[in-house]
Write a structure and sequence with these properties.
heterodimer, A: mainly alpha, ABC transporter involved in vitamin B12 uptake, BtuC, two-stranded antiparallel sheet, 13 helices, globular, disordered N terminus, B: mainly alpha, two-stranded antiparallel ribbon, 14 helices, 2 strands, 74% helix, 1% strand, disordered C terminus
């Protein structure tokens, strides 16, 4: 059984022409089916709603994608977004809106840098480093806020990132478009991105080729923090408060989006279109659960199942054949 | 036992001693008999979770779903107990075993990365727990009085359920040191190719390791339910992290192949001593959570440091400076 029938896993051999249409078709099919089968899904208002949610998820997923390409994983996004939201609201009286957003954003970048340092310099496994950081950040957020959400004084500037419109288009969607563009430039056009692919595909080979692996890994986690910071600002603006439990499922949803889009969690591959499609699929499914009036618990069940099936499918599109063999032999070929 | 492994296993007891000394100095009442008893009674949920995690780590795996498994198993067991009496709590290890089988199958047969498989089941099982409990409502035990007395009233120094947990831990250690299954799991972690050479099925061993992990998570769920007098579907979030930290501090190597249930128990009690000590000093529970996060990072750093230390000492003497 060949798990990687595509030869070497560098960015150049990404089947850029073959694979993206496949995931695009899946996304379009899901959209079409939902529009036909789910009441109110296809209305303009609902589509805008899905896009707004997908925007925040997508911005953070850009960060997750970088970490995943580096063969890592980032669990601390939700907790650091929560910590940033608390810090933003607390700093508001002293620094003004823009200063508070900057402060909160820088905090998340700093957290990303610490994660990067732990993984790159001290070879702590990414799971351990980011899970530990999750606990630290969410503990700090709850401690600072006293365990309860703190309200931000309402102001137009504060709610602009989430509710504003430019030329009729909601600001989060514009920021998401900018984030996806930035990610595309980073991954496909920059030396940094090329380094990330090489490190993710084979760190030893990258080191032997003369790349500074620790520096690349560190920069990856830091840039990932930057994307998360953008998402956290919009989230804080949307809830207009500092929430110690802001987005506990954010890391799971972004990992799911990457996996569904077809990024191998083993690292080394992935492009922006895959991230966009993965994000849209996750956002549409969450929206469908809400529209069908199912308990939100189904969102979690769906998300978990999705991660596993997506990874199985993208690892080997011949998985179905493998499953048949499994049933007939009881053993994996 | 090589000195390298022995030093791994001594970290947790040393940590307990150090933390004990620090808190004895700063926390009034830390050294009292009552406090020792409360630590000895409280730590067992974590001990069981960490012992389960130990099996997954020993096979070079990883299970971040143990908290979710414990919450689901504890909730279903509370429902079973309300229908069939307290015997129904035994449903918890069964549920845990089933969840572990699922994880094991995903890793051992479908060759998913452990983190992907258990992340998927973490999220999905959380959802199932919410679903069966009407969106996270606690399930109170009808016979809560008996359950809590089993969990709290000491008999010969420890509550009966703590004795039971201790027996499970000893059984786990016996499995590792004397049974073929345990030795094979350790061998799988130390050198996956060797397992094939002795004619064992690596996939089957991985399934067994995750089944043991799930079983212990289920036992932890039953204990949680008995202690709270209710099944708590949303409890256990964050416990998986403490369990991972406890297992690593208890000398389990993240790279697999080294595990000792007694040392893991000490690792769990180290975490419990720190939490209780912080509580007694009047530190906010949120800052205690921060401390646990630091402990997790510390355990990761420790594992890395030990590994590179061992790698350095394995080289011939004459290249050392």
């Amino acid at each position: 059984m060949s798990s990687f029938p595509l030869g070497d896993r560098g960015p150049s051999s990404m089947p850029a022409i073959l694979r993206p249409p496949a995931i695009l078709i899946v996304t379009a099919l899901l959209f079409g089916l939902a529009a036909l089968a789910v009441p109110r899904f296809g209305t303009l208002g609902n589509i805008e709603n899905v896009l707004r949610i997908a925007a925040i998820l997508g911005i953070v997923a850009c960060g997750q994608a970088i970490v995943v390409i580096l063969a890592g994983i980032e669990f601390s996004f939700g907790a650091s977004a929560a910590l940033a939201s608390v810090v933003i609201v607390m700093a508001l009286p002293a620094t003004g809106v823009v200063g508070a957003f900057l402060l909160g954003g820088l905090l998340i970048v700093a957290i990303g840098m610490v994660n990067g340092l732990l993984v790159a310099r001290f070879s702590v496994p990414p799971v351990i480093a980011t899970l530990g950081m999750l606990m630290i950040a969410s503990g700090l957020a709850a401690w600072l806020a006293g365990g309860l959400p703190i309200d931000a004084p309402p102001s137009d500037t504060f709610s602009w990132p989430a509710r504003g419109r430019v030329l009729g288009i909601p600001v989060p969607i514009l920021i998401a478009a900018a984030a996806f563009t930035l990610l595309h430039v980073l991954l496909a056009r920059s030396r940094l991105g090329r380094g990330w692919y090489l490190v993710g595909a084979n760190a030893t080979a990258a080191r032997l080729a003369g790349l500074s692996v620790p520096r690349l890994v560190f920069s990856g986690y830091a840039v990932a923090g930057l994307f998360c910071a953008l998402g956290a600002v919009i989230l804080t603006s949307r809830v207009a408060s500092g929430q110690p439990m802001l987005a506990p499922n954010l890391p799971f949803e972004t990992i799911a989006a990457c996996a569904v889009g077809g990024l191998p969690l083993g690292g080394g591959r992935g492009n922006v279109l895959q991230v966009v499609c993965g994000v849209l699929i996750v956002a549409m499914l969450n929206n469908i659960v809400v529209l069908l009036n199912l308990p939100t618990a189904y969102q979690l069940i769906l998300l978990g199942t999705l991660v596993v099936t997506a990874v199985l499918l993208q690892r080997d599109w011949a998985f179905l054949g493998q499953a048949v063999r499994l049933l007939t032999n009881g053993r994996r070929g | 036992m090589s000195p390298a492994i022995a030093s791994r296993l001594l970290i947790a007891p040393a940590g307990i001693l150090a933390a004990g000394l620090v808190f004895a100095a700063i926390a009034p009442g830390f050294l009292s008999l009552g406090n020792a008893g409360s630590i000895a009674g409280q730590g067992w949920v974590l001990v069981l979770l960490a012992t389960g995690q130990m099996f997954a780590l020993a096979a070079r795996g990883f299970d971040i779903s143990v908290g979710a498994i414990a919450a689901l198993a504890g909730t279903l067991a509370a429902m079973a107990a309300n229908s069939f009496g307290l015997v129904g709590l035994l449903a918890a290890p069964l549920v845990g075993f089933a969840c572990g089988t699922l994880n094991g199958w995903l890793v051992g047969r479908l060759a998913l990365q452990p983190i992907v498989a258990t992340l998927g089941s973490l999220v999905a099982l959380k959802g199932v727990a919410l679903l069966v409990s009407d969106d996270g409502q606690a399930v109170p035990l009808v016979d809560a009085g008996h359950a809590t007395s089993l969990a709290f009233d000491p008999v010969l120094g420890l509550p009966p359920l703590a004795w039971l947990a201790l027996a499970c831990v000893l059984e786990a250690q016996f499995l590792l040191s004397h049974a073929t299954l345990g030795k094979r799991i350790l061998m799988l972690g130390a050198n996956p190719e060797a397992v094939g050479l002795v004619g064992a099925d690596a996939g089957a061993l991985q399934i067994r390791a995750y089944q043991l992990c799930g079983l212990f998570a289920g036992l932890a769920g039953a204990l949680m339910t008995a202690r709270a007098g209710a099944g708590l579907p949303t409890e256990g979030a964050g416990m998986e992290l403490q369990a991972i930290a406890a297992a690593i501090i208890g000398g389990t190597a993240l790279s697999g192949g080294v595990a000792n249930a007694i040392a893991v128990t000490a690792g769990a009690f180290f975490v419990q001593v720190v939490l209780t000590g912080l509580n007694l000093t009047g530190v906010s529970p949120f800052l205690a959570q921060v401390t646990v996060g630091l402990v997790i990072l510390g355990s990761g750093l420790m594992d890395t440091a030990l590994r590179s230390f061992l790698a350095r000492n394995r080289q011939p003497k004459d290249i050392s400076p």
